[in-house]
Amino acid sequence: MPVAIITGASKGLGRAFAEALAARGWDLVLDARDAEVLQGTATALEAYGARVTALPGDVTDAGHRAALAAGARLLGGVDLLVSNASALGAEPLVRLAELPLEGLRRALEVNVVAALGLVREALPSLRAAPAGAVLTVSSDAAAEAYETWGGYGASKAALDQLAAVLGAEEPGLRVWAVDPGDMATDLYAAAVPDDDDPRPDPVSVVPALLRLLDERPASGRYGAPALLEER
Question: pTM value?
């Protein structure tokens, strides 16, 4: 069975995508910081018959990243690496003039440095896979100037560039940066707690991610809404 590593997989888009892969017969290595919630997700996904390795931890920890890659190798390798774990830099978000520099560093460490670190751990297995792929979860804040989203958006813009260069350097892989669009997630609630407007469930984004796996378009940046509209 193909094997995926998914970070930030205990809830939201990470869990929704993991469930879709489990239903397709994938085996999974899942990461999140909350051990109890992560184990609950793993137990639910095992009902699909998937082998699920749940490894709680912080993606900024090099030892944890090495454990994720090792767990995937025990299941047979790494066919897909999904960098979904994210940090905002401030909760709730604030303007750049008030953004704590330690918050910006945290966002860069989680969203960019850890993503590259995990790629480096998994790269030998990805290269050996029949159809190795890396999927990084981006944001429209990486490309648009929204007030208070500067630190988070800068980190996601850096992640987009990292993914673009990786795609150029590793032509045997597919490397996709995906802007999922608006979603009702804990991350968004923490970012803008006063916004009560309804937003789509992360499950609605999953068909766009599955389309990338099914059709394997060229490496690049994709918007989930466009992928869904074109079906």
Answer: 0.97
